[in-house]
Amino acid sequence: MNSSGVLQAVVFFAVLLALAWPLGRYMAGVFQGRIPAGMRWQQSIERVLYRLAGVREDDDMPWPHYAAAVLVFGALGVLLLYVLQRVQAWLPLNPMQQPAVSPDLAFNTAVSFVSNTNWQSYAGETTMAYATQILGLTVQNFLSAATGMAVAVALIRAFTRKLASGIGNFWVDMVRAVLYVLLPLSVVLALALVSQGVVQTWQPAVQAAVVQPDTATAGADAATQTIALGPAASQVAIKHLGTNGGGFFNANSAHPLENPTPLSNMLEMLALMLIPTALCFTFGHMVHAQRQGLALLAAMACVLLVMLTVVWWAEQSGNPLLARLGVDIQASDLHPGGNMEGKELRFGISASVLFVAITTAVACGAVNSMHDPLMPLGGLVAMWLIQLGEVVFGGAGSGLYGMLVFAMLAVFVAGLMIGRTPEYLGKKIGAFEIKMASVAILATPLAALLGTAVSVMLPAGRAAISNPGAHGLSQVLYAFSSAANNNGSAFGGLNANTPYYNTALGLAMLWGRYAIMVAVLALAGSLAGKKVVPPSAGTLPTHGGLFIFLLIVVVVVVGALTFLPALALGPLVEQLQMVMGAR
Q1: Which of 102, 259, 508, 580 is found 20 to 30 A from 554 (Cα to Cα)?
Q2: Which stretches does DSSP call E strand in 315-447?
Q3: Residues 6+ apart with CB under 8 A from 89
Q4: What is the C-alpha R_g of the chain?
């Protein structure tokens, strides 16, 4: 990586840690009921919300009740968002007169935003009315992120309790996540983005005169260009902070009105990583062992930095087939070199690949460049970070509880090696915990691989592929990996807005989100009911270098064993074809 790219990455991670540490401490206090003095004015709003919903703040839910609340809340969200899209043509705040969304696309989009996936089979500026963007998509960006954070907090709380029947109250955890974390951060970020030029207006699209008229498809000179506007900054802020990823515009964070400057690009990347990183510190504070949270953070960071290095090398090396044709792909003072296809010149390779690595690791799906033109190894890194299962930082809440599941699996493996019952944070990990951990780990690969296999066999699945061969398989595999792991990004070459893909990907999103959540909550219920066992001489310390190494190995090995055969048929074959063709 060149010096400017290294400096950018160093500044990014330094600022991220500086912001995440106090935020993690703040969130630990919020979820434990210790509201800071400056935010207590919102407690009256919080109490009103509980009263309107008929919720008692001190009710402690057993895990089946907590899981039922999560499922019912998600089902209602899908229903309401589906109806909103179907009737948007008759609602106000529709200056561009957008028609009702088709049934299959409305189902896909409703599931996508409620499940925190934000997969988009449509162009936002030409499909969604302002009312749908604000009342539907933006609201679900808050609620889906808060749901993930609530489940993570329930699991953390289980480690701190002993012989307890409850794991907290979903409604309280979710409301506090919205009121005290997501809303304040979103207001600050939205104002910062507006200052950089991100559009926030009720005005309809405008017609602008082009500097140099171009010849349109019909042969006439196009003297004007339609520039879409709208209340974008408010949605962009929570799209990043909530690790949602759904763009107001079709080009997402590559759009100049959604991400106009290098500073806005840095702010959006920081927002992507902020809450998943801070939750590691929240975990440490809530279990009263900060080193435990730092160990998880270190494992996540090691995997991310290695993957970032690989994707940067792949993109900066460029395509050797072009070099064979005499194209200069070496970086110089005159051009950036490497593979600039699908990337914005104002960001370049360094800022683009940093965004690629963190958005696929964080399970967000926002993009400032297109992933379909990535070099084969670059595409493999993006795809594999998704396929690891939202554990390399992952989504808001989902990343932490995903990594905690792997941590329990790691101590189980270590216990088998030394012949002891495994323990994690004083809780014995028994057969039930390993069964639930296995369900959580295998749920998304099942949906991703099964969905890919069925799609490449069916005519309806193959008809949407734009590139035959290995890259076409990668397009389908990426789509189902993204849907099942609730990431939402896409290669971009797959025509996914069809009844088949809208339905299949929607089902993958539902399974990938809620099957894991139910397993994690069952795990939390079991752990909360256990007594705390004091550490002994045979207990594996779960905060040192050995455990961090073991945790990384378990994550990487499980990911490799699960997806390597499929990856070998997609990006690895494509890489070999490219290398052999350049000789």
Answers
A1: 508
A2: 423-424, 427-428
A3: 97, 98, 99, 100, 129
A4: 23
Residue 327 above 80 pLDDT? no
Cα–Cα dist 347/366, whole Å: 15
Contact 274, 19 (CB under 8 A): yes
Distance CA 201, CA 488 (A): 26
* Mean pLDDT to the nearest integer, 70-80: 97
At 279, the pLDDT band (50, 70, 90 cuts) reads: very high
- Do the beta carbons of residue 360 and residue 388 sit within 8 Å? no
Place of tokens 């500044």: 11
> 516, 147 in Cβ contact below 8 A?
no
CA distance linking residue 35 with residue 480, whole number of Å: 40
| Contact criterion met (CB below 8 Å) for 440 and 405 | yes
Look up residue 33 and give its amino acid. Answer: G
User: What is the pLDDT confidence band of residue 326, given thresholds at 50, 70 and 90?
Assistant: confident
CB neighbour class for 171 (10 Å; exposed up to 12, middle 13-18, buried from 19)? buried
Mean pLDDT in residue range 26-46: 92
Nearest Cα residue to 361 out of 484, 273, 247 = 273
Q: What is the dihedral of CA 18, 23, 29, 30, to 10 degrees?
A: 180
> Tokens 């510190």 correspond to what residue?
281
What is the rounded distance in angstroms from the CA atom of residue 569 to the CA atom of residue 562?
A: 13
Among the listed residues 161, 157, 159, 180, the one whose alpha carbon sits nearest the alpha carbon of residue 169: 157
Q: How far is CA 325 from the centre of its chain?
A: 39
Give the other-Cβ count within 10 Å of 557's Cβ.
11
